[in-house]
Amino acid sequence: xxxxxxxxxxxxxxxxxxxxxxxxxxxxxxxxxxxxxxxxxxxxxxxxxxxxxxxxxxxxxxxxxxxxxxxxxxxxxxxxxxxxxxx
Length: 87
Prior knowledge:
alpha+beta; 3-stranded antiparallel sheet; 3 helices; 36% helix
């Protein structure tokens, strides 16, 4: 599922994503699997940690809303690393 579709399907949520399809040249993810969606930021952190513990690679939290997002710097950095093809 593309990010634009995820934003439409899961509005105002914290969505736990894992990349499933990558661009061959840039290594950037093109499609994602939605592992879970959460309303509260604490729940999203717990869900992300669970999937990381289960060995799912490239897991990150993606907020589907604008405005002030209570994001830990490590979570924001992880999201951008995955989106830019660094993981």
